[in-house]
Amino acid sequence: MTLDSATDAGIFARSFDDFVVEIGVASGRVVGVSFPDAVPDDAATDHALLERVAAYLDGEEDHFDDVQVALTVPTAQRSVLEATRNVPYGETVSVERLARLAGLDPEDDDDRRTVETALRENPVPLFVPDHRVEGPGATPPTVARLLRAIESS
User: Fold this and answer.
1) Mean of the pLDDT values across residues 132-149?
2) Phi and psi for 100 in degrees, rounded to 5?
3) How far is CA 138 from CA 42, 44, 116, 124, in A?
4) Is 34 within a domain?
């Protein structure tokens, strides 16, 4: 999904049944996703991505793989997050499997730490679906469980 950098820049958020999704967009790319307790006062609530999130939460399958994201992370972490983006909708993988998908050695302590750090510091959860990995992630655990349940039904 190509975003119009002139009209789509800003902070957008919407409250859904169980949580709030906040999306930061700059230069036509998603630069941040968070799950605050409430919709921030300065956030707009109307954005095409929030419409897609709403449909996804209602059970419409969406991989979000066409959403352009800006990943300003170290190269090794980028490979982990790109591998995470390739985990199919409805599937869950282990940290070890994700390490292998990212070209890292799951038996190497440094590589495992790289994977876990990349997941915990994922700037754009949902669009880089760390909820599909059995391990630490930037998506809050209660939200991750809900997203896995949506994808498994």
Assistant:
1) 95
2) -65, -40
3) 23, 23, 10, 8
4) no
Separation CA 92–CA 39 (nearest Å): 29
Give the length of the chain: 153
Res. 5 pLDDT band, cuts 50 70 90: very low
Residue that has been written with the tokens 């994922």 in this structure: 122
Torsion of CA 35, 41, 42, 46, to 10 degrees: 70
Q: What is the CATH number of the domain that holds 106?
A: 1.10.10.10
Tens of pLDDT along 38-61?
999 999 999 999 999 999 999 999
* Those residues with Cβ within 8 angstroms of residue 150's Cβ, 6 or more apart along the chain or in another chain: 56, 57, 59
Q: Which domain holds residue 79?
A: 75-152
Q: Give the CA count within 13 Å in the CB-facing half-sphere of 16.
A: 20
pLDDT band at 134 (very low <50, low <70, confident <90, very high): very high
pTM above 0.85, yes or no: yes
Could you tell me the two tokens for 40? 């921030």
Q: Is residue 138 part of a domain?
A: yes
